Amino acid sequence: MLVSSSDLGRLTPNLSRRNALLGALGLLALPATGFAAPPAAVSTVWPQDSRVPGGMARLSLGPAALRPVAQQGELPLLVLGDEIAWTALVGIALSASPGDASINVRASDGTQRELAYRIEPKRYSEQKLTVPPRTVDLSAGDLARHERERAHQEVVMATFSQPLPQAPLRMQVPVPGRRSSSFGLRRVFNGQARNPHSGMDIAAGTGTPVVAPLPGRVIDTGDYFFNGNTVWLDHGGGLLSMVCHLSAMDVQPGDTLKTGERLGAVGATGRVTGPHLHWGVMLNRTMVNPALFVAA
Ligand code: ZN
Q1: What is the DSSP letter of 170?
Q2: 201: CA distance to ligand 1 center in Å?
Q3: Where are the domains of the chain?
Q4: CATH code of the region 8-40+123-293
Q5: How far is the CA of 62 from the centre of ligand 1 (A)?
Q6: Please, which pLDDT band fits residue 235 given cuts at 50, 70 and 90?
Q7: What SS3 class is residue 231?
Q8: Among 23-27, 256-260, 268-272, where is mean pLDDT lowest?
Q9: What is the CA(63)–ligand 1 centre distance, in A?
Q10: What per-residue confidence (pLDDT) applies to 7?
Q11: Which one, 125, 207, 275, 293, has the greatest CB density within 10 A?
Q12: 96 burial class (0-12, 13-18, 19+ CB within 10 angstroms)?
């Protein structure tokens, strides 16, 4: 079964303070030691097909005069292409179980079909840390703030807009610098598992310009407890990106950006150990590996 929830969406309101924090930290930063050279990838298509938890399936829908509608459960999926070949892009949650999965495809004449695919297992590495308990416990005030912010972010993450983005969806890395390969890293703090790291960390100094990875519209800006100064971009069709821990935000909701246009600067705001950029890419409300969208 596929689970289409994001890190934040999986938290429930009745979690303990500790668990709320342990869960929410899925978006948090790694220390500089978490950086490593990215694996070499050879691809001429973006995003790359990678049918594993945290990856993305490119499912061929075949030819049709009009764009079919594809859904994962109730969630609309991004369908790209033309009358010769349509393709559904399906973000696969880090929490998805390996095995058989399917989407629903509805043609313009109303006929529906199930399209099956298979999620292969992927074992992400694990990092065990022992830290002072107060660094993983939230105060009552901080917890209340985080819960308000989470509710707001869920609304942001549900954005599904037109027009759809133009293929190929090859993204520009929003800031130059060493890219971590820590997406999916499973972290255990003081023996308690928390949500895995759901983005890419890029090492860069405070003040380094951060740019839009694809054309997009700014749908949210804010200073959030964990993520610090954060900008969300909507690229259309449920493809969103977020950049966190900024020292400066130069845009506001409603602004539209071209690829490479500046939106802010790298910083160390929120709960981080040092300046870097956390970059998240979301497809059908699921955080997927940003590396699938960029050239090696
Ligand atoms: Zn991060």
Answers
A1: P
A2: 5
A3: 8-40+123-293, 56-119
A4: 2.70.70.10
A5: 37
A6: very high
A7: strand
A8: 23-27
A9: 39
A10: 35
A11: 293
A12: buried
